[in-house]
Structures are given as C-alpha cells and as structure tokens.
Amino acid sequence: MVFLLPNVKFNLELIQKYDTRAPRYTSYPPATELHELFTANDFRLAIANSNQRQSPLSLYFHIPFCESACYFCGCNTVITKNKNIAKPYLERLEREIQNTSALIDPNRKVLQVHWGGGTPNYLELPQIESLWKTIRRYFQIDSQAEISIEINPSYVNQEYIQFLRDIGFNRISFGIQDFNPEVQAAVNRIQPERMLYNVMDWIKEAKFHSVNVDLIYGLPYQNIDTFRETLHKTIALDPNRIVVFNFAYVPWLKPVQKMIPQAALPGAQAKLDILKMTIEELTDHEYLFIGMDHFAKRDDELAIAQSDSSLKRNFQGYTTHAETELFGFGSTSISMLEDAYAQNHKELKEYYQAVDQGVLPTHKGIKLTQDDIIRRDVIMGIMSHFQLSKTDIEQEHKINFDQFFSSELEDLKPLENDGLVRLSKNEITITDTGRLLVRNIALVFDTHTRNRSAHFSRSI
Ligand SMILES: C[S@@+](CC[C@H](N)C(=O)[O-])C[C@H]1O[C@@H](n2cnc3c(N)ncnc32)[C@H](O)[C@@H]1O
Ligand code: SF4
Q1: pLDDT, tens only, 67-83
Q2: Rounded to an integer, what distance in angstroms lies between the CA atom of residue 315 and that of residue 62?
Q3: Residues 6 or more apart in contact with residue 409 via CB below 8 angstroms
Q4: DSSP single-letter state for residue 80
Q5: Measured on CA atoms in the order 312, 422, 279, 455, is the torsion positive or negative?
Q6: Cβ(112)–Cβ(59) below 8 Å
C-alpha cells in the first residue's frame, strides 16, 4: 500500500518492517552518551577551544516551571503555583550568565536566542525584562537575530504577548496538542478553542516573524477523525510551522503519565493511520515535510534553510544557522559546541549550589572524538537534508568516504533494496519513502547506539 504525497511517501509495509528503536538525533552522539567523567573543567577547556573558532552563537535559556501538570509531559519541569520559586532561580540563572559569558569571547555575535521550558511565560513581565537586560548586558545580540520563546497559551493575555514582541522576541511557539475536549480533559490540559484563536490573533497583531504550534498524536481518546478535526482547526490558525510529536509514553520515567488511562491510548495501527492522515492533510495544505515531526510553509526560514543547507538539528529539534555553537543556561540545559557537549544539573539544589560556588554548573558531558565528529556530520546531513555529498565529507575530513564507511555502505544495501535510500558514486540520497524512516538510515552510521538500541523510542 503506497500513497503518493508531495515530498514524502507513507509506505505502511516498510514502516512496520523498520519499526526499531532509534535516537531522535537532536545530537550525535545522542544525549544518552553524556557522562559524569566530563566535568566543569572539561567544559571550560572546550569553551576556550571554541573561542579559537570564533563561530557565532546560539543561546538557550531554560525556565523549568509550569503552573499545572499536563499528564503527557515528558519535559524537565517543576510544577508549582508558588510564583516565589522563580526568584531564586532567576538569581542563579543571571549569575550563571555572568560567570559563563566571562569565558566566551565577547566579539562572538549571537544569531539565535531561545527561551524554553517548562513554561517561560510562567515569569512575570518584570522578571522577563530583567533576564533580558542581563542577556543583553553580557552578549552581543545581532540586530537580525532570531529571538524565540515557548509559551503555554493558557497563561497569556494580549498585553503579555505585545510585551514579548516589544522587548525583542520575534519568533514564538505554543503548545496546542489537541483541540478535542475529551482528549484535553484526559491529559489535564483544558484549552478552549476560543482562547487558542485569541492567542493567535494577538500574536499576529504583534507581528511576530514566525509562529510555531505543537501537536501530539498518540494521546488518549484520539482517533483519526478527532485528530483530523484538530489538524483542520490548526491549519485554520495558519501557523508558519507545525510540529506533530509522536507521544512518548514512558510512565516508568515520567510518573505523571500514570494519570493517563492506558486503555484509552490509540493502538499501534491507529497511530499509523493518524500519522498517514496527518502527513496527507498538512502537505495538502501547503506545509512541507521538513523531517521527523516538523512541517513548515515553503517561505518559512526552516524550509529555506533546508534548501540552502543551513538547517541543522539541536536539542530543540530542527533549527537554522548550522554555523553556530549553542550555549545552554539554566537547569538541565545542554550546550553543543563543535567538539564537546555539556549538560547542566537537573536538580535545582545542585544547580544552585554550583552557581553559588562560582563554578560552571556542568553535571555531565562528552568530548567528541574525531570519529564522532565525522559521523556527526554524516548523520546530521542525512537528518537535515535527506542527501549527503560524500565529496563534501571527504574534503572536510580528509578521508576516503567509501573506505572509511565500507561496512556502513554494505549495511545500507538492504535499505537500498527496500527503496529507502539511493547510493551513487558521490551521493547518498534518502528517497521520499525513506524520509519517514530517516532515523533508521542515520542509525547505520551511529557506532554509539547500534548495540544499545533499547534506550530509544520507536522510529514512528
Ligand atoms: C516545553 S513544551 C511547550 C511550551 C509550553 N510548556 C506548553 O506546553 O505549551 C514542549 C512541547 O513538548 C511536547 N511534549 C511534551 N511531552 C511530550 C511527550 N511525552 N511526547 C511527545 N511530545 C511531548 C508538547 O507538544 C509540548 O508543547
Ligand atoms: S506540556 Fe508544557 S505546560 Fe504542560 S507540563 Fe509540559 S512543559 Fe509544562
């Protein structure tokens, strides 16, 4: 059964055949490879090396708080209505910015800023303003920088949205997840339709450059008809980008998910039907399939970045400005430099302690080997562009591609026979059928994961 779609083909038999677990490749090596032998001192050295490269910067700021728990949530959050909790956190966050920025060459320009969470709009407006002032004091933000924020639409009004825009945010993302009231009730996230339409109106009035909304498929009580309705309502909102996450159901890691009635979760076949319908609906309505779970309008910067090779993956998913190095601030945040990744402490107590002692709050990390860097470039090329120029990799890394990857090219042959990938003298091309299974193709080049795939979610 094969269905023709604009830039991606849904092939049920192959999706079922390749139903394995694989990382989402928001980084390579995947975040599961970060370890505690990598210390704050290692990160300090990695920052010094990174200054030699003089690459521009992306900055990520994590605000972990949420007012109430959505039962599906897999993010790193602290649920509390007690707003006092944000104050000591922001003090530490501002101190971390001050301490870490002292190690970063001040001439390096910031091209991207992202506030994520949790819920950044948990903060009061004066707190947002104060954090912004600190960021601007310690970093040189480019006048054309993409400055984005994630919000929960339940906790904003028009004044709040306009303030975000006035203070400098020019991209915004909010979670819808599902419009259906029964689904919303089952996941403890009631968002009346009228409210979502109002929030979008305010965002449009404030003239944000790009708006992203998140949906999730696989939630309780969803079926193909209810989710089609959710998609139609989402398309009517006319966002520039839509992310349709596959529900990661991991109650052993996220106990809050035990609140979800398991019997109400759609089965594997129902989820595949929903996914197929989703791809058809979105691509029929002028959204391009960017990869994994991301869709964007043709004129959105994600789609443009895909066509001019400046798209990449980082811990937020797909993003533009492949040339930047990412510094993360706040609990759990991850920095991704060219040759090292570092993650801050998850527990607020440990994060506060490190910042109070004036040391980098690094909990774990990884120093990439030359082999990791070569494979990272291959995997990210495949994930972001569905096409890899062997010649580019050879020139960049001074290797003979076919010799270096002889066993991987052998392992790709069955995938080539199944029509997921085309191998030619100079290129590896992911076919329209292979696009939905791009993680399986990337996995062939991933020496870290190939023997320990049980840790990861299923490809589809
Ligand atoms: C940090 S939240 C977005 C901002 C804000 N907190 C909100 O909920 O609107 C990031 C997104 O992750 C997605 N998400 C959270 N838990 C998930 C899970 N278990 N499986 C799949 N997606 C999930 C949701 O779509 C959510 O909007
Ligand atoms: S989905 Fe968003 S608002 Fe809900 S708990 Fe997770 S981070 Fe918080």
Answers
A1: 999 999 999 899 998 98
A2: 12
A3: 402, 423
A4: -
A5: negative
A6: yes
Indicate the SS3 state at residue 376.
helix
DSSP label at residue 453: G
pTM: 0.95
Task: Indicate if the alpha-carbon torsion angle 251, 252, 254, 255 is positive or negative.
Answer: positive
Helices (H) and strands (E) counted in the chain, each on its own, are: 16, 21
Does 317 contact ligand 1 (Cβ within 6 A)?
Answer: no
Determine the distance separating the centroid of ligand 2 and the alpha carbon of 298, expressed in angstroms. 29
Q: Are 331 and 354 in contact (CB under 8 A)?
A: no
Residue 177 Rama label (left phi>0; alpha psi -120 to 50; beta): left
Q: Whose CA is nearest to atom 21 of ligand 1?
A: 247
Dist. CA 60 → ligand 1 center (Å): 17
DSSP string, 200-245: HHHHHHTT-SEEEEEEEES-TT--HHHHHHHHHHHHHH--SEEEEE
Closest Cα to residue 77, out of 255, 342, 336?
255
**Who's near 334: CB < 8 A, 6+ residues apart?**
27, 31, 34, 60, 315, 326, 328, 341, 342, 343, 344
DSSP state of 113: E
Q: Give every CB contact of residue 354 below 8 A, 6+ residues apart in sequence.
A: 40, 345, 360, 361, 362
pLDDT of residue 1: 40
Instruction: Indicate whether 3 pLDDT > 70.
Output: no
The answer to whether 282 touches 274, Cβ cutoff 8 Å, is no
pLDDT in tens, 384-417: 999 999 999 999 999 999 999 999 999 999 999 9
Q: For residue 78, what are the β-bridge partners?
A: 65
